[in-house]
Amino acid sequence: MYQEGPASLVTTRLIKRVQMIIKAVNTFKVIHDPHKLQRLIYEEEEKEGHKYVVDRRSVARILDKLVADGLVRIMKIKLEGYGRLKMLQFIVHPSVTAEDSLIKSAIEQAKMKLPIITKESIKRENRLMKHLGSPTPTSFDLGTYNSVCTIQKMLKFPISCGTVQYTV
């Protein structure tokens, strides 16, 4: 796993961190986020009285070495939907596959957190678009905000915003 010689520095703390990660992966089989491993290592080292905190890069380097040795696997899953992109990263035991129930349930939970588009929200957006499609200004004021552009930013619709400002 680690090379011996003057170029590598293997400390007892590094070995303890590796052991903690392997123990956590063997216990839980699926860890939903590398940040949870970082927090686990931090809590253990805080109990031991260390004053320095492990950073995410150190955890990433340890994970890379463990993946290279085949002791853990990292599953990266990309969820796309409703104009959003969410990246999921699971640290798993080598025996866990993508069809495992723990992975599937974690993916379903992440899907639930993405914004939901319902028939009512589509109807509401369509009514708003019809209303804004041919704006009839009730008052003209150069000092007010451009309501069409503001609504465009909120709804992320491609509405062309001109130089004329309307108060609707």
UniProtKB/TrEMBL annotation:
GO aspect biological process, one term: transcription initiation at RNA polymerase III promoter
CDD domains from the UniProt entry: Tau138_eWH
Alphabetized InterPro entries for the sequence: eWH_GTF3C1, Tfc3-like, Tfc3-like_eWH
Gene Ontology cellular-component annotations: transcription factor TFIIIC complex
Entry protein name: GTF3C1 extended winged-helix domain-containing protein
Single annotated GO MF: DNA binding
Pfam families: WHD_GTF3C1 (PF24101)
Domain of life where this protein originates: Eukaryota
Taxonomy of the source species: Eukaryota, Metazoa, Ecdysozoa, Arthropoda, Hexapoda
Domain GTF3C1 extended winged-helix, first and last residues per copy: 10-112
